[in-house]
Design a protein that fits this description.
Blueprint (H helix, E strand, L loop, with lengths): L15 H10 L4 E2 H11 L8 H13 L3 E7 L5 E7 L1 H25 L7
Antiparallel strand pairs: 1-3, 2-3
Helix pairs in contact: 1-2, 1-4
């Protein structure tokens, strides 16, 4: 399967990174690199999370109480911060997921069917 170059991957729309982080942490605690890898793999290499955006988003979500963080040891025996979803974060995930599904449906309605007139 051919891989996409970095330039061909889709850029994340503002606000989507928080949603994707919260969704990733729904499966359990994870460190930053693991979060980025999960998003990339889950999107079939369409989305590449820039670390310059990831860590400020993690910090922002922690400050908002949506996630917590603690130090631990990663699978390659390095010190890393592991993030975990809070109850507040679960609630926000549900709200954000509903909102983004409505947005995606609305945009799909505007664009029309695939292969339609361009």
């Amino acid at each position: 399967m051919p891989t996409r170059s970095q330039n061909e991957r889709l850029a994340l729309l503002q606000g989507t990174l928080d949603l994707l982080i919260l969704r990733t942490l729904l499966f359990g605690r994870q460190h930053g690199q693991g979060i980025a890898r999960f998003i990339q793999e889950s999107s079939k290499d369409e989305l590449l999370v820039d670390h310059g955006a990831l860590y400020p988003a993690l910090q922002r979500l922690e400050e908002q109480g949506a996630i917590t963080a603690e130090w631990g040891i990663s699978e390659n025996n390095r010190k890393a911060r592991f993030y975990k979803l809070t109850q507040k974060g679960r609630k926000r995930l549900g709200e954000e997921r509903s909102r983004w599904r409505r947005i995606a449906l609305a945009i799909g309605n505007v664009l029309g069917p695939e292969g339609g007139e361009v």
